[in-house]
Design goal:
alpha+beta, D-Maltodextrin-Binding Protein, domain 2, 18 helices
Length: about 425
């Protein structure tokens, strides 16, 4: 009798789905602040999707890029959702490595995505990654230090002004450094900053015939300017500093200026984390009067590898994390100033956000002014502002980044770094069959 009762209960539970195991999706993401916050808020997602559990793999930027690239190229299948950027999406989509995201639900409102961000994630009219946050780069500075030094930051500064101001406000005895810039080697770390900066100096990676240009006068001027400025006005150990390290330095009051991703604005103005929150000002990325500013264009986005067996569950998560509703969730928990920026037009039409985020206008202007189709002063055969949108660039950029980090650290001269960078880039491009 007891066996019959137990059998009947078992059948009932199976019929109602109570014995069905939840589906676990594995998400690879970068250890930036907005992604850390997302993990803390995913109880909202799992409550709405009780049949889906989440497993997180959170990695430093360079490590994340290496891991997800290896996994998707080898069809490793470790991840169901990947955090990737504007560089990878079109290249991987053309290789059929990504699932098209043309069905994220009736309420997703894909047309609300900012055109500059959406276009970089779209191939043949289909969206292949959903932007979690979008960014350009700009100057963040200590208005109190500028006032003390009798300086006034222009809305659109030149590199000459930035360099002079950085040297003037530097006070190494009190651990105040005039400027903090990326030095950590990596195609998306120091080379993101240096490539965008080089554009404003009139440099380019390749000429119209794909001939490598790293031995040009413009690149030499760029790297000399950067190394000299960092030696005079930068923090010690700068060749090890990437986005997160410079963020920590700025928040602790050790940087007079920081030129980096616009997404950092909410962190440096958050009094919970930043000791200088009430004295931060913003300006456009600098230029040299040549018609190009040193600002980039990027979106950290969520994509689904084609090899996943859990595409439908993954789509539900991607839709949740990049929706208007998610922005409202963050606003309800952390305030409007802390929502992920740079992805949706409706955010920049929201009076609550504009009131809470003094950096909103500058962020949007910076994003809209970046031109990945015409990134340089002289014509080039490639697209991309802080990267070259070809598969070979990930390896090239990382290797060149190591050479430039060595120049900053003083283990190589600028001339040596540029000569080595020229040779290794020429070698890779020749092997890859350029010009094609």
């Amino acid at each position: 009798m007891k066996l019959k009762v137990l059998f009947a209960i078992t059948c009932l539970l199976l019929a109602t789905g109570s014995f069905i195991h939840a589906e676990t999706i594995t998400i690879a993401t970068v250890n930036n602040g907005d992604m850390i916050r997302m993990q803390k808020l995913t109880g909202d997602f799992t409550a709405k999707n009780p049949g889906i559990e989440l497993e997180w793999v959170t990695l430093e930027e360079n490590v994340l890029r290496q891991r997800v690239t290896t996994d998707i190229a080898t069809k490793g299948g470790q991840y169901d959702v990947m955090t990737i950027g504007t560089y990878e999406v079109p290249i991987w989509a053309k290789q059929n490595w990504l699932v098209a995201l043309d069905d994220l639900g009736p309420n997703y409102d894909v047309d609300d995505l900012l055109p500059a961000i959406r276009s970089g994630l779209t191939v043949d009219g289909k969206l292949y990654a959903a932007p979690f946050y979008g960014e350009s780069s700009m100057v963040m500075y200590r208005a109190d230090l500028f006032k003390k030094a009798g300086l006034e930051m222009p809305t659109a500064p030149t590199w000459k002004f930035v360099a002079a101001a950085a040297r003037k406000i530097t006070d190494k005895g009190n651990e105040i450094y005039g400027v903090c810039l990326r030095g950590k080697a990596g195609w998306g770390e120091n080379m993101a900053f240096l490539s965008a900066t080089a554009n404003s100096f009139g440099a380019r990676w390749f000429d119209e015939n794909w001939k490598t240009q790293l031995d040009s006068v413009a690149w030499k001027n760029t790297l000399n300017f950067y190394v000299d400025l960092m030696h005079d006005a930068g923090p010690p150990g700068a060749s090890s500093n990437g986005f997160n390290e410079n963020l920590a330095l700025f928040q602790s009051g050790k940087c007079g200026m920081w030129i980096d991703a616009t997404v950092a604005a909410s962190f440096v103005t958050n009094p919970k984390d930043s000791t200088v929150a009430d004295s931060v000002g913003f300006a456009l990325a600098p230029d040299n009067g040549l018609g190009k500013r040193g600002n980039w264009l990027w979106a950290w986005s969520l994509a689904i590898p084609a090899g996943t067996q859990k595409a439908e569950a993954a789509k539900k998560f991607v839709a949740w994390a990049t929706s208007k509703e998610y922005l409202e969730l963050v606003a309800s928990k952390e305030g409007w100033a802390n929502v992920p920026p740079g992805t949706r037009a409706s955010l920049y039409n929201n009076p609550e956000y504009l009131k809470a985020a003094p950096f909103a206008k500058m962020t949007l202007e910076s994003i809209q002014s970046a031109d990945p189709k015409h990134p340089t002063v002289d014509p080039v055969p490639y697209m991309g502002v802080q990267f070259v949108a070809i598969p070979e660039f990930q390896g090239i950029g990382t290797a060149v980044g190591q050479q430039f980090a060595a120049a900053l650290a003083g283990t190589a001269t600028v001339d040596q770094a540029l000569q080595n960078a020229q040779r290794l880039t020429e070698r890779v491009m020749k092997k890859a069959g350029y010009p094609k």
